[in-house]
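User: I've been trying to design a sequence by hand for this structure and keep getting stuck. Would you show me what you'd pick, starting by listing the structure so we're on the same page?

Assistant: Good idea, let's start from the same input. This is the structure you sent:
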């Protein structure tokens, strides 16, 4: 099978191929780490320069009324379109961890659900830290972490059994960071509701590449970062979604200025807003929100269904070429094979994963610099953002890994792990 010819043919008929030109692209480099940090849109450079030089530099504080306060509303509206929520069910601002804390604390205090906090061993570590920090507010002053035999995929039957026996507040990553396992969100939301439970979804590795329809999936609460597949820039603010079905019973534990019903009345007594704005806290981070706005524009223009379709095609192609080219080198695919159970990165495992990653990033005179990322102990994540990753990128990546393994180049690389790729 001529995988190079297949890649070139698929790229030729790719409806999204022109979107790569909207980003700053380094020559002679293949970027497969968009599942950690998305590329920089060229329009973000232009927009940031406008804000810094004119809105801040010249107009100063007048820009709050002229532009900045309205900007947050526009971004929230765009995010609501992306996840198919009502306009007043979503906010963009603050970090993923802060927003997760707000929702979990609020749910614990709302008495809508039994005060059990549950997650699993596939969840992102920082989410587990937040959950652990809230255990004093639970019924037994403890949290539950479901420990599947595999730390790569969820055993749905075990998860459902736990929900039945231990109803309460669950927090799961819609797409898991290590293996790219994608949970059946609607099925689990409906099961949780039947068993007097709620699942708070962390969509950080899903938003911008998975078609998240909160209405169709009956999602009640979700959070997620914007700096991965939404290309909002390092540390860009996250989104927070709370369904109207439960919003009235919830209160933000952080009684901040912008969560007030009338923040510019400067009242000494705090009166929370009676809508999603109650989950606001501090002043909007204008400079960080500008690229989020641009990133959302690009994703909405491309269309989330188109993005998801290409992601599936890229993943299926990548699995075929890995199986064909790398099987004899003891390379294992640690991600789900079925597209319906997988996000937009594929994890491969090899005992020399760390040193292989270092060689890929280093590049060389005769080969491109390739940027994946490493996750302990032996995982290489190959993230493919459909907006700027091509099929030929994936072909060249696997051929490079094959060359490294064939020639045992990793033996020349220091084993020390003093840096992260």
């Amino acid at each position: 099978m001529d995988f190079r010819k297949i890649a070139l043919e698929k790229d030729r008929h790719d409806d999204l191929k022109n979107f790569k030109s909207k980003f700053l692209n380094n020559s002679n480099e293949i970027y497969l780490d968009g599942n950690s940090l998305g590329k920089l849109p060229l329009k973000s450079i232009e927009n940031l320069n406008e804000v810094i030089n004119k809105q801040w530099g010249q107009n100063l504080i007048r820009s709050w009324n002229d532009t900045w306060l309205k900007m947050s509303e526009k971004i929230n509206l765009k995010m609501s379109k992306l996840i198919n929520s009502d306009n007043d069910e979503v906010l963009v601002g603050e970090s993923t961890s802060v927003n997760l804390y707000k929702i979990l604390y609020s749910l614990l205090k709302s008495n809508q659900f039994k005060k059990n906090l549950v997650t699993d061993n596939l969840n992102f570590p920082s989410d587990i830290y937040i959950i652990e920090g809230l255990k004093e507010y639970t019924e037994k002053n403890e949290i539950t972490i479901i420990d599947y035999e595999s730390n790569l995929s969820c055993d749905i039957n075990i998860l459902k059994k736990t929900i039945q026996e231990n109803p309460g507040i669950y927090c799961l990553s819609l797409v898991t960071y290590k293996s790219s396992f994608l949970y059946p969100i609607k099925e689990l939301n409906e099961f949780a509701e039947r068993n007097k439970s709620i699942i708070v979804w962390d969509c950080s590795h899903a938003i911008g590449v998975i078609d998240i329809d909160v209405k169709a999936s009956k999602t009640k609460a979700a959070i997620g970062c914007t700096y991965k597949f939404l290309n909002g820039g390092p540390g860009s603010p996250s989104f927070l979604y709370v369904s109207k079905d439960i919003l009235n019973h919830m209160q933000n534990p952080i009684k901040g200025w912008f969560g007030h019903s009338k923040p510019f009345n400067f009242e000494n007594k705090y009166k929370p807003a009676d809508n999603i704005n109650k989950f606001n806290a501090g002043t909007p981070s204008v400079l960080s929100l500008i690229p989020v706005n641009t990133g959302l524009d690009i994703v909405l223009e491309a269309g989330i269904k188109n993005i998801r379709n290409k992601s599936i095609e890229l993943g299926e192609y990548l699995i075929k070429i890995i199986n064909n080219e790398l099987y004899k080198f003891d390379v294992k695919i640690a991600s789900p094979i079925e597209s319906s159970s997988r996000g937009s990165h594929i994890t491969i495992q090899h005992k020399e994963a760390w040193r292989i990653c270092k060689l890929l990033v280093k590049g060389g005179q005769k080969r491109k610099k390739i940027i994946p990322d490493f996750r302990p102990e032996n995982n290489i994540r190959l993230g493919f953002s459909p907006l700027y990753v091509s099929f030929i990128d994936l072909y060249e990546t696997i051929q490079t890994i094959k060359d490294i393994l064939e020639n045992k180049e990793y033996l020349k690389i220091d084993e020390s792990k003093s840096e992260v790729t």
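That's my pick for every position. To get oriented when you compare it with your attempt: The chain has two domains: 3-31+303-412, 45-302. The two ends are 32 Å apart (CA to CA).
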